[in-house]
Amino acid sequence: MADTMQRWTMNAVGREHLQLTESAIPQPGPHQVRVKVNAVALNYRDKMVIEGTMPLDLPLPFTPASDMAGVVDAVGSGSTRFRPGDRVISTFSPDWIDGKPDGDARTPPYRTAGGTYQGMLAEYVVVDETWLSASPTSLDDAQASTLPCAGLTAWFALVERGHLRAGESVLVQGTGGVALFALQIAKAHGAEVFITSGSEEKLLRAKALGADHGIHRLQGIGWSRSIN
């Protein structure tokens, strides 16, 4: 095994400062695990963090991206949750283990990977064992890496907060990552799904994923009147 790895880092805010660098492969400490990263999902939030439109106190030099999937390849002393060879995914808010968090949207209580903490855009990452969850066996690494931010955002909105039931109607605005997860989760729960987009091509793709109704938001009488 080599002694060094590649990772993306930035020493200042701005895409022009993002560089592919070489550094020593980190070693896991007590209750930590090292993961060989096989896939990283990029969210719009990551773009905002890199470009500074989501102002955060970044730990410089900073590695972006919150979501990854990979394989545990080493564990530190006292680590019991995972073993080398286990497939894992990251968690978006590693400090929020369970229960209702404090704060609100204006003063979010969570400290996130790829924000307050270092991100996942590297060949190897070392994190506390509680920062990881087992990767679904039904998904490959590229698919599983999209779950921590976009997938759980859609699930939380529709299921945890929305208590979605079969036969209800769901409006999905746009065709980004959260929207496409919302579409598929809603259909899996037996809902009727309306989806909007400014692209006919994207509407056709959404219908192929199960959307019942596609509304071109730039044509006709507008999505609100179209649904009514």
Q: Which characteristics define this entry?
A:
single chain, 228 residues, alpha+beta, Quinone Oxidoreductase, Chain A, domain 1, Rossmann fold, 2 domains, five-stranded antiparallel beta sheet, three-stranded parallel beta sheet, 6 helices, 23% helix, globular, GroES-like_sf, ADH-like_C, Alcohol dehydrogenase
Descriptive report:
Its EC number is 1.1.1.1. By secondary structure, the protein is of the alpha+beta class. The chain folds into two domains: 136 residues, Alpha-Beta Complex (Quinone Oxidoreductase, Chain A, domain 1); 72 residues, NAD(P)-binding Rossmann-like Domain (Rossmann fold, 3-Layer(aba) Sandwich). Helix content is 23%, strand content 26%. The strands form three sheets. A five-stranded antiparallel beta sheet has the order 6-3-4-5-7. The chain has a three-stranded parallel beta sheet with strand order 8-9-10. The protein has a two-stranded antiparallel ribbon with strand order 1-2. Helix 3 packs across helix 4. It starts with a strand and ends with a helix.
